[in-house]
Amino acid sequence: xxxxxxxQAHIEYLNWIDSLSKLxxxxxxxxxxxGKWSPNEIIMHLAEWDRFTLxxxxxxxxxxxxxxxFPDFEVFNAKAAALAHEQTFxxxxxxxxxxxxxxxxxxxxxxxxxxxKVFYIGEHKETIRSYxxxxxxHDNHHRVQISTR
Length: 149
Hints:
- Helix content is 62%, strand content 5%.
- The protein is mainly alpha-helical.
- The protein has a three-stranded mixed β-sheet.
């Protein structure tokens, strides 16, 4: 994906977040399937990974950098889901938008020539482009979960 395609994907994500405001609190906090997360938990999950990316990833995404491996996914995701229960869905949506807008601002400031320089997350080779292409795939995975309810 090009820098512009990734920017457009972020815009589509923000528009999707806006579209979720039509859900009432009951709908937003009902699991999308038995034993699964609610839309509120899913959006908080996405927002917390955005926050992690803002704080722990983007500042160090430079050629040759060696970043720590990802935290334990199960623990991280459980904490994010728990945070969703501490606020309204409207607050979760606002937080999610804020996190993604901050990512967009930071990415816009990075020249596209930097987007293909290799850094490492744990032992895994990564680039800004590959990281955010995977990021979009993760977004889409969760969008499908909510839109198929």
